[in-house]
Amino acid sequence: xxxxxxxxxxxxxxxxxxxxxxxxxxxxxxxxxxxxxxxxxxxxxxxxxxxxxxxxxxxxxxxxxxxxxxxxxxxxxxxxxxxxxxxxxxxxxxxxxxxxxxxxxxxxxxxxxxxxxxxxxxxxxxxxxxxxxxxxxxxxxxxxxxxxxxxxxxxxxxxxxxxxxxxxxxxxxxxxxxxxxxxxxxxxxxxxxxxxxxxxxxxxxxxxxxxxxxxxxxxxxxxxxxxxxxxxxxxxxxxxxxxxxxxxxxxxxxxxxxxxxxxxxxxxxxxxxxxxxxxxxxxxxxxxxxxxxxxxxxxxxxxxxxxxxxxxxxxxxxxxxxxxxxxxxxxxxxxxxxxxxxxxxxxxxxxxxxxxxxxxxxxxxxxxxxxxxxxxxxxxxxxxxxx
Amino acid sequence: xxxxxxxxxxxxxxxxxxxxxxxxxxxxxxxxxxxxxxxxxxxxxxxxxxxxxxxxxxxxxxxxxxxxxxxxxxxxxxxxxxxxxxxxxxxxxxxxxxxxxxxxxxxxxxxxxxxxxxxxxxxxxxxxxxxxx
Lengths: 387, 133
Fold this sequence. Notes:
The structure holds 2 protein chains of 2 kinds. Chain A is of the alpha/beta class. Chain A contains 13 helices and 12 strands. Chain A folds into 2 domains: about 5-15 and about 265-380, Aspartate Aminotransferase, domain 1 (Alpha-Beta Complex), CATH 3.90.1150; about 15-260, Type I PLP-dependent aspartate aminotransferase-like (Major domain) (Aspartate Aminotransferase, domain 2), CATH 3.40.640.10. Chain B is α+β, with helices and mostly antiparallel strands. Chain B has one domain: Sufe protein. Chain: A (Alpha-Beta Complex), CATH 3.90.1010. The longest helix of chain B is centred in the last third of the chain and has 19 residues, at about 105-120. Chain B is globular, with a radius of gyration of 15 Å. The interface between A and B is medium-sized, with 17 and 22 residues.
């Protein structure tokens, strides 16, 4: 077993060897060299590679390939979906609905729109992170043009009932955007059945390369959004710029592999997650962040009282785990999501997010649990009694 | 964050952690901590012959605090008891190359040691251990 044991797969996953092999071959081939927009043979070959990847990405979410636009990642997809759709539809209304615990890519996009005069309602979750469809319904207004919701939460793993929210958006006439960066390949996604109009995807959360993502746009309900970038006419003019053939192909292969393994990987990973929780649950006072049921298979988030978060993470140098969210780790501030769920500042700071990938083993999970037990016991033994 | 080697050494193998072993001499204890209880420090020490004969610490807080407490006990061991009244936090921060924002937490060490010093200054000189000093 190699250390540190990598248990931060919600932040990024290792690239699957088959994906890496394909990308490496393309980087040294004529179709990998050529611009996919070029009219010569190598360019047409590159375009064929792109279209194959488009089909593979579309297949995982039951969309048509023509509804997929490649971007630089889920953050850009969220920006394009929310800002692009709002600007394009501003004549129909200037109100959006989202939840208070969304990914920063969604929250900051909403704040950018607020600066342009849009209004945003931030629906509060319950103390386990669940956002009730009824609360979304209550926030809808006649001028609501878009609702945006994370499918599986990147910090606590809670899975929202997107089908219910999609159905009520459809009845109301608002567009429905879903960030599926954590759920794609781990939960069933069907954009038609779940009434999703826009859906953000990331490759590197699913054993693909970094720097590439995609946005699904329903061709009937959301054919156009206002592009954020200006340039050539690539990606139907919605996302100009030369497509990186090797990265697009890598995303396609990663999504095809995920589709093949959809009945195999998520249950096995959920088993590892539950194994880890059973072993950690014997730590006195440990708290599960998020619901007992209704969590995505790969994320386990806990808070441990009686220890300092930074010391805990330093004592766990044999593990690659996140404290709260990797997206906010640099600030040293407690996770706003955990604070929203009612955790105190010390408990939010003393949180660990374990996220499991298809490469992890039972031996690694048991080792991780032993490391956490040892670190907590050592740090608690050092602490003075409370006054 | 990349931590300095000296911090890792004292964090992984803290010196003089825990409680005082049994022994002769006057025992002093000083504590300090944040109001919210996020970080706490406790020093226990024994004075014999006007010197710090034994010192132990306990700490709850970031690695900088734990390592600085460990380093402080090394520096104070065997020193005249008056050393407890001398500010030490800035010196410890420099030794550990602590980032400036950690200095506030390290000041808990000065607070706790000052409480030890005050306990020494306020001691009653009627016990057998005091007559021995």
